[in-house]
Specification:
Keywords: Membrane, Transmembrane, Transmembrane helix. The chain is 34% helix and 24% strand. The protein is an alpha+beta fold.
């Protein structure tokens, strides 16, 4: 009976060990799922929070002074561009990167079409299109924000003017740009 009792105790020990290992594995798997869900929720909350600073510009009419404020605030943001169209500059001027904002139905709408670094305009693959582009005139240009405040400049933004503001999002709903079109 001593051997039988030892065998039962050993079997019970093995059974308890297997049960504890199984419980540990189940807890680990459920913790992984909870972590994944938490990461997805955190990412969603982070996207919402980053979008809140742009909601004031989402299909609204704003003043020229708000356009100037937006230029000052977002001009240096990476992978972000602001296009301002005034009554004097109907082609518009891009500040920061140049975003594909031509056709909202396009699969590339909202993507960075050209990166502006220093005085160069480059395609996203790094190919240089224009060198010495600071102050370059036309729609594919980087302009100094200070020119938007100079009354003598065709890029002048009248602070009393009214502008229709539009937020440009890519296919992943990430905001890459703002469009300001003067309405008066």
């Amino acid at each position: 009976m001593g051997n039988a009792q030892k065998a039962l105790v050993m079997a019970a020990g093995i059974f308890l060990a297997i049960a504890l290992i199984t419980i540990g594995v189940v807890m680990f798997i459920s913790a992984q799922e909870a972590t994944k869900t938490a990461q997805e929720n955190f990412s969603s909350i982070q996207n919402e929070l980053s979008s809140t600073s742009f909601t004031v510009y989402d299909n609204t009419i704003i003043s020229g002074s708000q356009v100037i404020n937006a230029l000052n605030k977002f001009n240096k943001t990476k992978e972000f561009g602001i296009r301002v169209v005034t009554n004097e500059d109907l082609a518009g001027t891009w500040y920061g990167d140049i975003i594909d904002a031509q056709n909202p139905a396009s699969t590339t709408y909202g993507d960075v079409a050209y990166r502006v670094t220093g005085s160069e305009i480059r395609q996203p693959d790094g190919t240089t299109l224009v060198s010495g582009a600071t102050g370059y005139s036309g729609t594919v240009a980087q302009s100094l924000v200070s020119q938007a405040s100079l009354e003598s400049s065709n890029r002048y933004v009248n602070t009393a003017g009214k502008f229709h503001a539009t937020v440009v999002r890519d296919s992943s709903n990430v905001i890459h740009g703002l469009l300001f079109d003067q309405t008066n």
